[in-house]
Amino acid sequence: MPRKPNVLFILSDDQRPDTIRVLGNARIHTPHLDRLVREGTAFTRAVCPNPLCVPSRAEILSGCSGFRNGVLPGYGNAIDPKLTLWPEAMRQAGYLTWHVGKWHVAGRPRTRGYGESQGLFASGTPNPPAQADFLGRPVTGYRGWVFQTDDRKLFPEQGVGLNGQISERFADAAVSFIERKPDRPFFLHVNFTAPHDPLFPLPEYLKRYPAERMPLPPNYRPEHPFDHGNRAGRDEVLWDYPRKETEVRADLAAYYAVITHMDAQIGRILDSLDRTGQAKNTLVIFASDHGLAIGSHGLRGKQNMYEHTVGVPLLMRGPGIPRGKRKQAQVYLRDLYPTTCEAAGIPIPSSVEARSFMPVLRGQVDRHHARTFGYFMDVQRMVRTDRWKLIHYPKLNRYQFFDLRKDPQEQRDLASEPDRQPVVDELKTVLRSWQKEVRDPLSTTPAGPR
Q: What's the CA gap between 177 and 116, in Å, rounded?
């Protein structure tokens, strides 16, 4: 019997879907992600429905939406212990299960199905020292985070918070696992912190992106036209209002530099698979937990329903994955769990709500989800089809409606145009029906006019 494939799952943090060169961004340098695109399949309409780190990662691990896995209605609740998590399903099937990098759900890796961790990075240092980012601004993200063991032995001497070399540390740990060349298949989950703020670009990478030559996002605005429900949130107050073009350009340059540095570390991990003769039997998955605005629509953070944020990069390469293909099927990040199980010939646990998209990869169908839905706290809900997107702001009782085919940058709100009302009304009904189906606490919210 042939050996089951290894699984290498690499997850970045806050990476927009338009930050891979070969997929259309000629400004950024991502040679190793480009390699995955050429050697595998890219999903260009993958979705993170709940764009915040903790709930997104909980969905990935559980294969269930936030309405099913126990994390909502807030975002810091523990995953329902009755659910079989992705690494546990792999472990039960005989896989070695390894974790590297950022840990940002309740519990610890070993209580969530991982047999071993290296390069584990999590919160833990009380009263961390003040820190400033590359522009001298006070740091509010990853304060007090340190490398540590699964049983919480901390290593503050290795640095507190983020730094410019941290992606290298994660790659070092991943490579050390791969070089073991075990006699059993492995599931290796690598969580980078890049390109989440605070940004600490290394000078040799930042010089590739002169800030004065960085173009603004095509949908840049000095300010969002209304309070989308997170105007005063941590991400948004990283910049002053109105947004300054010079600051947006500087942060975009640093953001790209950090992504390019991470890409180089991903290259080291891929090279280790080649060097140890394990590449041909390893399913490689690359994605991000969600995207980021970083200037688009007048926003800085990820707590919104626009394409630059709910859209995520998703690349797959390995046994059974077509080479050089791009798929427009709508898939959720949580669908990765059952898809991997099917690809490896592992039973999909009954607790998994998500659906495998292996039929899309096999070329049997072009569509996976006719509609995808998004949600953030009690302030945003969204439904997206192959062409249309409707966003509802319940506290404002306001809607936005976009034609993504003609307006992919979501710059023209069509919600009030009379000739669009039949489609708007249809999607309002669809959204309300879905909210009742998932028992959304907001399902009783009236959906009146804009």
A: 10
Nearest to 368 by CA among 405, 339, 331, 335: 331
Specify the pLDDT at position 222: 98
188 neighbors 255 (Cβ within 8 angstroms): no
- pLDDT score of 444 more than 70: no
Q: Which residue is it, tokens 């400033």?
A: 132
| Long-range Cβ pairs for the range 143-151 (8 Å, 24+) | 145/121, 146/121, 146/122, 147/119, 147/120, 147/121, 148/120, 148/121, 148/122, 148/124, 149/117, 149/120, 150/108, 150/109, 150/110, 150/116, 150/117, 150/120, 151/108
pLDDT at 448: 42
* Residue pair 195/302 in contact by the 8 Å Cβ criterion: no
Main-chain dihedrals φ then ψ at residue 441, nearest 5 degrees: -55, -20
- The residue behind tokens 């075990």 is 182
Contact 251, 294 (CB under 8 A): yes
Least confident of 125-139, 208-222, 299-313: 125-139
Confidence of residue 450 (pLDDT cuts 50, 70, 90): very low
Kindly state the average pLDDT of the residues 168-193.
98
Query: Is the dihedral angle over the CA atoms 192, 31, 14, 320 positive or is it negative?
Result: negative
**DSSP codes joined into one string, 27-48:** TS--HHHHHHHHHSEEETTEE-
Rounded-to-5 percentages of helix, strand, coil across the chain: 30, 20, 50
Q: What is the pLDDT of residues 4-27, one digit of tens each?
A: 999 999 999 999 999 999 999 999
